[in-house]
Amino acid sequence: MFLYYLVQCTWGALQTLAGFIVFLANFNRPHFFYHNAMVTVWKVRSGLSLGAFIFVPSFKDTSRTGIQRRIIVHEYGHTIQSLILGPLYLLVIGLPSLLWNKIPVFERRRMRRNYSYYSFYTERWANHLGELVTREKSLRPENVI
């Protein structure tokens, strides 16, 4: 636990600071720990991972809680990427992931070619690391409802 925070707050300081700011902006939302990462359930409809902070959407339909858990495993994989890449995380993972998620041309390309969002290298690697470390399932194309 100590080592996780030490590395996130030194080697991964940029993204952890950004995560802390987003955490403070969502301080009134529900929070809990997952494998040492601070998880916040926020009102945004997608997940985000910045250093030791994970942000996930809430699902009012309780039957979808399994999906929320898989999002957490996936986002936790991004926290491991942060530990590995340190200051390069935002450039190598954060920016490409954000563009892959939010730029309409990429969304159209995924739809047209029937690509899974999780086929992109940043997301595929996050799934792999999240599953490896937590021993739980993440959001893979074959287990997304």
Secondary structure elements and pairings:
Blueprint: H1 2-10, H2 13-25, E1 31-34, E2 37-42, E3 48-50, E4 53-57, H3 65-85, H4 89-102, H5 104-113, H6 121-134
Parallel strand pairs: 2-4
Antiparallel strand pairs: 1-2, 3-4
Q: How is this structure best described in words?
A:
The chain is an alpha+beta fold. It has one domain (2-136). Helix content is 56%, strand content 12%. The protein contains 6 helices and 4 strands. The protein has helices spanning 2-10, 13-25, 65-85, 89-102, 104-113, 121-134; strands spanning 31-34, 37-42, 48-50, 53-57. A 4-stranded mixed β-sheet has the order 1-2-4-3. Strand 3 (48-50) and strand 4 form a beta hairpin. Helix 3 runs antiparallel to helix 4. The longest helix has 21 residues, at 65-85. It is globular and about 45 Å long. The relative contact order is 0.15. The model has no long low-confidence stretch (mean pLDDT 92).
Number of helices: 6
Mean pLDDT rating: 92
Total of domains:
1
Share of helix, binned: 55-70%
Q: What's the alpha carbon Rg, rounded to whole Å?
A: 15 Å
The tally of beta strands, per DSSP, is 4
Which ranges are low-confidence, i.e. pLDDT below 50, for 5 or more consecutive residues?
none
Query: How far apart, in Å, are the first and last alpha carbons?
Result: 33 Å
Query: What portion of residues belong to β-strands?
Result: 5-15%
Sheet of most strands: 4 strands, mixed
H and E string: HHEEEEHHHH
**Morphology:** globular
Helix and strand content put the structural class at alpha+beta
Largest sheet strand order: 1-2-4-3
